[in-house]
Amino acid sequence: MLDDGKRPLVRVRNLKMHFPIYRGVMRRQVGEVRAVDGISFDIYAGETLGLVGESGCGKSSAGRAILRLYDVTDGEISIDGNEIAHLAGDELRRLRPEMQMIFQDPQASLNPRMTVAAIIAEPLDEHQTLSRNARMERVFELMDAVGLNRNFANRYPHEFSGGQRQRIGIARALALNPKFIVCDEPIAALDVSIQAQVVNLLEDLQEKFGLTYLFISHDLSMVRHLATRVAVMYLGKVVELADSAQLYGDPKHPYTEALLSAVPEPDPTLENTRERIILEGDVPSPSDPPEGCNFCTRCPRVMDICRRESPEFKQLEDGRFVACHLM
Amino acid sequence: MLNFTIRRLLFTIPTLLLISLIIFLLLDLAPNDPTGNLPLTIPAEVREQIRKALGLGDPIYVRYYRWLVQFFVNEPLNLLGEWTHSCIGDCENRLRVTSWATRSPVVDLIAERMPQTLWVVGLSYVVGILIAVPIGVYSAYRQYSWFDQLGTFISMIGFSVPTFFTGVLMIVIFSVQLRWFPSIYDTTLRVTDWSSLGAQIRQMAMPVFVLALYNAAQISRFMRASMLDNLNQDYVRTARAKGLNERVVVLVHVLRNSLIPVVTVIALGVPQVFGGAIITEQVFKVNGLGQLLIIGIQGADIPLVQTLTFIFAVLIVLFNLIADILYGILDPRIRYD
């Protein structure tokens, strides 16, 4: 690794998350959806790794698998030195305070029958022994940290707006002082005006508590603003991983190029000169990926070798990783 | 909530009056004859006199008005008098709703039959719920496991095989072949010591089991479906991400949310308990309310049928209201203001 000065907090190696498909009367397994098909990367302490890609490429599955909300098919995940990919039950549960998740839909991810205070305090009850007052004090502290009025502690989630609900979700995630937080499209369900508030809140909290984020999004501009490094996923695989500036300035992988060409430009004169790369065809089904490179069916610069061999995910001289036969 | 309840209770008054009128008209239109069960040797003129004596000669609105007064004024006054051991108004000559067949007041008949029905049918409902909820929860948690498949199969049988079949089958197996349980329910049995308690349990076992199977089949399906709805919700994933115990995730987060629709279904089923299981009571000769209703219908005992049916209607309307209120209490998202 070139970033030798930094310590990797999260190490993911060859992570695979395959979901079985059952069919027929006897519910025999007839195949599997390869949502995540062998991804590897490090996330350094204190950084934000952006994970981008189109709908259905496996971003969310990857995020959930890394936090072990799924039972992973194969691979290694280590968070702060603890190997968690194949832990189960209580051993895994005891490590939960280290790693938390902020979910996409702030309405559905909060139990409708619990008050805000109960939602935030529940992990405290489970993992710590606090007195009643100390627990309430901590709940108020967290509500202050995310900018929620303390008087709302006894209200139910449905009484809040979308942005406020997402703040509840963030306070909940912060309750146990986690080191690593997976933000699974935390702003996708919010109004544009609220998105900026929540993103700024996430940045402030990162500074204040020294958090490490995996920021999953399909909003490329937001990721550019927020992320230190960015990983691009296509059909269950990471195709390119680079520093934010490098990736946005000079994309190497043809898919990254096409993806970035879709970002609108705020300046109208530049917008008129923007050349969009339109990809032909549809994304292949993750239950039946093509032979060779996953992108070979749509790649504008496809070669013969792409249809035979899957490209290696290798590091270039400038430190970035690309999986492409062109490199 | 209080305002909502009061408003709904006020709305029930016209609803129930309309229901009582519809029941009355339906019974009047039905081709029945209270003298139909009398010996054929009784001449037609005498039959006509009997009908006149029962009040059938009066116009329909007079008869309906008479029933209204008897049921809504005289019966409550009589009940009040009995409770306070006093005589309110003209208590000696007050006309009560009287059964044509037995000449005894309908309310007294119902009071006699109520305990058997509540014991047998009510207990079967409770047993059914106690069986159904754990089965529903576990079936959903282990969806498509052998337990779930078996549960689905059994509840399909329990739901689709009528109680007059399972009841008779039980009698053939357990009364006739094995001789474990009596096939006829003995109302005169008084529980005084351990052996009579044993006898009571034995005679209740089969009707309770047959009805419990039927109820459990229905409720466990609801429970399973409701659990499945909630198990895939995002907030369950949140609960797991919090690092909660799996037991807490399922029993606190999922079960509590899943019980909301199930509790209302259970509340809506309670009137049927009072209505008695008409067929099952017949099969096991339990002389409860269901059997009373059947006898009343067979003998064209219109005051009895009218009163019983109306009481069922009151219970159904009341438990609909209770189900609505329970929903408001259990689900914080619902507010009746």
Q: Total number of β-strand segments of chain A?
A: 12
The third-level CATH topology of the largest domain in chain B is MetI-like fold
Please report the number of helical segments of chain B: 12
Report the C-alpha radius of gyration of chain A, rounded. 21 Å
Overall outline of chain B: globular
| CATH class label of the largest domain in chain B | Mainly Alpha
Sheet having the most strands of chain B: none
Q: Determine the N-to-C terminus distance of chain A.
A: 18 Å
Structural class of chain B: mainly alpha
Give a topology summary.
The complex is a heterodimer of chains A (327) and B (337).
Chain A: E1 8-23, E2 28-44, E3 48-52, H1 59-66, E4 74-79, E5 82-83, H2 89-95, E6 99-102, H3 116-127, H4 132-145, H5 162-174, E7 180-184, H6 192-209, E8 212-216, H7 220-226, E9 229-234, E10 237-243, H8 244-249, H9 254-260, H10 268-273, E11 314-315, E12 321-322
Helix pairs in contact in A: 3-4, 3-5, 4-5, 5-6
Chain B: H1 2-29, H2 44-53, H3 60-84, H4 106-141, H5 146-160, H6 163-177, H7 194-231, H8 234-241, H9 246-275, H10 278-283, H11 289-298, H12 302-330
Helix pairs in contact in B: 1-12, 4-5, 4-7, 4-9, 5-7, 6-7, 7-9, 8-9, 9-12, 11-12
Structural key phrases:
heterodimer, A: 327 residues, alpha/beta, 8-stranded mixed beta sheet, 4-stranded antiparallel beta sheet, B: 337 residues, mainly alpha, MetI-like fold, 2 domains, 12 helices
What's this entry about, in short?
The complex is a heterodimer of chains A (327) and B (337). Chain A is an alpha/beta fold and 327 residues long.
Describe this structure in words.
The complex is a heterodimer of chains A (327) and B (337). In chain A, 30% of the residues lie in helices and 24% in strands. Chain A is of the alpha/beta class. In chain A, the strands form two sheets. An eight-stranded mixed beta sheet of chain A has the order 6-7-8-3-9-10-12-11, with helices on both faces. In chain A, strand 1 (8-23) and strand 2 (28-44) form a beta hairpin. In chain A, helix 3 crosses helix 4, helix 3 (116-127) packs parallel to helix 5 (162-174) and helix 5 (162-174) runs parallel beside helix 6 (192-209). The longest helix of chain A has 18 residues, at 192-209. Chain A is globular, with a radius of gyration of 21 Å. Chain B has 337 residues and is mainly alpha-helical. Chain B has two domains: 20-94, no CATH class; 107-330, Orthogonal Bundle (MetI-like fold), CATH 1.10.3720. In chain B, helix 5 crosses helix 7 (194-231), helix 6 packs antiparallel against helix 7 and helix 7 (194-231) crosses helix 9 (246-275). Chain B is globular and about 80 Å long. The N and C termini of chain B lie close together (6 Å). The mean pLDDT of chain B is 88. The interface between A and B is medium-sized, with 31 and 21 residues.
